[in-house]
Write a structure and sequence with these properties.
Elements (H helix, E strand, L loop, with lengths): L1 E2 L2 H17 L6 E7 L3 H17 L2 E7 L5 H13 L5 E4 L9 H5 L13 H9 L7 H12 L8 E5 L6 H10 L3 E5 L6 H5 L4 E4 L17 E4 L3 E3 L2 E3 L4 H4 L5 E2 L7 H19 L1
Parallel strand pairs: 1-11, 2-3, 2-4, 5-6, 5-7, 7-8, 8-11
Antiparallel strand pairs: 9-10
């Protein structure tokens, strides 16, 4: 069993990105919009700002009270769309309930949508066109590539069908010539399908949900889950019992997680290059 080290891979990619940013003819800028004072969101934003600082990317934070109206937020995004200093725009989710996330995200200019959440980006991904791929799925594919894990011809099973992870990673695996099954809460006899997986990607937000009897011997297991239980972090996979059966597996923390912010940086640099 080989541990897939997301932290090490992330550091390698960031070193390469820093060189790219240093050689760019103009500054690269990322704008982060955060609404309200959700503690987890504040941590995520600080992590993104720290990554920008490490790579030489200019970071711009726009903080608003949770009482902001949808029109006010849209106006800010419109201004950032027109701002040539800004190559990437992201809105930290979740937003307060009175704000429509989908309408807000669709206001971001396609070429600056570094989270890759807009219908335009997802549509391009579906068609196999060049786009800014959402960060966690992109990170998973980079990890598979870094560890020389062949995808073509393999049966990949994705557990979870979210717009942020499940759907886009299934498209990326399909593009890499895997045969893809997508499972979800209504899937009958889930274990019968997960046991067929050469590559198993789990993104459902339920601690230790995937147990050893649900995994094939020699499978590659990618655990996207981050669940806090009694002050400790656990993935969606029962790591202790599943790991001995795997050829490769991502730990939690330290697996997919570090790659998400790194791929946000990749998208920001790519958007800056496209703007040139």
């Amino acid at each position: 069993m080989i541990l897939i080290d997301g932290k090490k891979t992330s550091e390698k990619i960031r070193a390469e990105l820093a060189e790219e940013v240093k050689n760019m003819p103009r500054e690269v800028g990322l704008a982060v919009i955060i609404v309200g004072d959700d503690a987890a969101s504040q941590v995520y934003v600080r992590n993104k700002e720290k990554a920008c600082q490490q790579l030489g990317i200019q970071s711009y934070r726009y903080s608003f009270p949770s009482s902001i109206t949808e029109e006010e937020l849209k106006k800010t995004i419109a201004d950032l769309n027109a701002d040539k200093r800004i190559n990437g725009i992201l809105v930290q989710l979740p937003l307060p309930k009175h704000l429509n996330e989908r309408r807000i995200l669709e206001c971001i200019a396609t070429e600056k949508d570094v989270d890759g959440f807009s219908a335009n980006q997802i549509g391009k991904l579906l068609l196999g066109e060049d786009c800014l791929v959402s960060c966690t799925p992109q990170g998973i594919m980079k990890l598979l590539s870094e560890y020389g894990i062949s995808v073509a011809g393999k049966h990949a099973v994705v557990v979870g069908r979210s717009n942020i992870v499940g759907k886009p990673i299934s498209l990326l695996l399909l593009q890499a010539n895997a045969t893809v099954s997508v499972c979800h809460s209504k899937t009958a006899d889930l274990a019968a399908i997960t046991k067929q997986a050469d590559i198993l990607v789990v993104a459902i937000g339920k601690a230790k949900f995937i147990t050893a009897d649900m995994v094939k011997e020699g499978a590659v297991v990618i655990d996207v889950g981050i669940n806090r239980v009694d002050g400790k972090l656990y993935g969606d996979v029962d790591f202790e019992n599943v790991a001995p059966k795997c050829s490769y597996i991502t730990p939690v923390p330290g697996g997919v997680g570090p790659m998400t912010v790194t791929c946000l940086m990749c998208n920001t640099v790519k958007a800056a290059k496209n703007a040139l």
